[in-house]
Specification:
Blueprint: E1 10-20, E2 23-33, E3 36-38, H1 41-45, E4 53-56, E5 61-64, E6 66-71, E7 73-74, E8 77-78, H2 86-100, E9 105-113, H3 117-123, E10 139-140, E11 143-146, H4 170-177, E12 188-193, H5 200-209, E13 213-216, H6 223-232, E14 236-237, E15 290-294, H7 302-311, E16 316-319, E17 331-335, E18 338-342, E19 348-350, H8 363-374, H9 378-383, H10 387-393, E20 410-414, E21 421-427, E22 430-431
Parallel strand pairs: 1-4, 1-5, 6-9, 9-10, 9-11, 11-12, 12-13, 13-14, 14-15, 15-16
Antiparallel strand pairs: 1-2, 2-3, 5-20, 7-8, 17-18, 18-19, 20-21, 21-22
Helix pairs in contact: 5-6
């Protein structure tokens, strides 16, 4: 019985140092066809084919494309801005998706802060999962809805007037987000909630059942409430250290989950960090959640980044939490209807206050800062922006690695100066033109 195979063009990358299985591998090649990474063995022996086109990486690192699971907007565009026409909103989303490629970001979760039902009803259909391309922009992995089931005490830049509780269970979530929530992860990839809000923790299993990754954040919860939320199915912490109780040695709050030793072991590896030297069990997936880190040097002190990473290395996920001011100079901008001020250092605050309201950092800069702050290896820094976010979303068979069968989304990095700099970007196997 003969097996059908594609007759389309085959590409081969040579002279690259490939990130494969947590190591930089030299003297190896990367093959891809139809936007997927392939194994060349069957080409040689079964179909007697070789590469149609050779791409010379010229000694650069070849790594998976970066994934940003929390980004509010960029280039003057806010994903929560619903007042334009549907056509204009779609055009704006496309502008951001294309612009992110410049920083090596080939997939992202557009983030919508706490909003009213009419906002979600209008913008979420436009943020559904869609494939990326070199001309169309980074892949959309589904939205990250941050609120409105969050704490007034830790609201940050979110509008308190739209906050809700979940006394009615999952029905409260359907009421808040509308029909899009029924699509599960196709529409909503990640949802940030505060576990101490009435009804929220009990509703987590229902959200997980729909394929939604539940993150806990913007919360004043105590450690017991945080651990219960994780036990119920929450697998991530939103922007660790920010919008949560400060660490206290007697009740460490949400931050203390990184040190948890008695959480029930996961029954599946999907959506959970791989075991590390600090895991409760070194032979099972880590029950502790992934945690987002904004590595802009403003939101979190480098020492805190280092402490978090060394306590739970396989859980670190780099995020920008970038807002509409990303890619633009200092000035005044908006986030979910709130007025913001961005200073000359790129720090964004609610206008007239000292309350941080998202960043202007790019994902490649986060990778560089993370390596500098923690003194980790280049591989560890890259995986915090590739493999780990893919594992968080349960899509590591498609994204986050250069494994056979995965999407041909990858980046050429120059590390000759000791810092990782983006040189070339490929989406679905096609090179992006800048």
């Amino acid at each position: 019985m003969s097996i059908a195979y594609s007759t389309s063009k085959i590409y081969k990358i040579i002279n690259g140092r490939l990130l494969i299985n947590h190591e930089i591998v030299e003297n190896s090649y990367l093959w891809y066809q139809d936007g997927k990474i392939i194994h060349p063995q069957s080409l040689f022996f079964d179909h007697h084919r070789d590469a149609d086109e050779i791409i010379d990486a010229k000694g650069l690192l070849v790594v998976p494309g970066f994934i940003d699971t929390q980004i509010n907007g960029a280039y003057g565009i806010d994903f929560a801005d619903y007042e334009h026409s549907v056509e204009t909103i779609q055009e704006n989303i496309d502008i951001v998706a294309k612009g992110l490629l410049r920083y090596g970001c080939t997939a992202f979760c557009p983030t919508v802060v706490s909003s009213s039902p009419e906002v979600y009803e209008k913008v979420l259909p436009l943020l559904n999962h869609r494939k990326g391309s070199a001309t169309g922009g980074a892949e959309i992995l589904g939205a990250h809805v941050e609120g409105p089931f969050i704490s007034v005490e830790k609201k940050g830049a979110h509008k308190q007037s739209v906050f809700r509780d979940a006394k009615e269970g999952i029905a409260a979530f359907d009421s808040a987000y509308g029909s899009e929530l029924l699509k599960g992860s196709k529409a909503v990839a990640i949802m940030t909630v505060a576990p101490e809000i009435e009804g929220v923790s009990d509703a987590i299993p229902d959200l997980v059942q729909r394929g939604i990754t539940v993150a806990i954040g913007h919360s004043a919860c105590r450690i017991a409430e945080a651990e219960q939320a994780v036990t119920n199915g929450a697998t991530s912490i939103t922007h660790l250290f920010n919008a949560m109780q400060a660490f206290h040695h007697r009740d460490p709050g949400l931050i203390g989950v990184l040190g948890a030793a008695d959480l029930p072991l996961p029954t599946t590896s999907k959506g959970h960090p791989k075991p590390s030297l600090t895991s409760p069990c070194r032979h099972s997936p880590d029950p502790r959640p992934f945690f987002g880190l904004i590595c802009d040097g403003v939101h979190v002190h480098p020492n805190s980044i280092r402490i978090a990473y060394y306590s739970h290395p396989s859980g670190a996920v780099l995020v920008t939490d970038a807002l509409s001011a990303m890619g633009l100079p200092e000035g005044e901008y908006t986030l979910g209807g709130s007025e913001l001020q961005v200073d000359k250092n790129g720090a964004a605050y609610i206008k007239g206050t000292s309350t941080l309201a998202g960043s202007t950092v790019t994902i490649d800069e986060c990778v560089r800062n993370f390596q500098k702050f923690t003194n980790c290896t280049a591989v560890e820094a890259i995986e915090a922006a590739t493999l780990h976010p893919a594992q968080l979303l349960g899509i590591e068979h498609q994204k986050g690695t250069l494994n056979v069968g995965g999407d041909a989304d990858f980046v050429f990095l120059d590390d000759s100066t000791g810092e990782l700099r983006v040189e070339k970007v490929f989406v679905a196997g096609d090179e992006v033109s800048f």
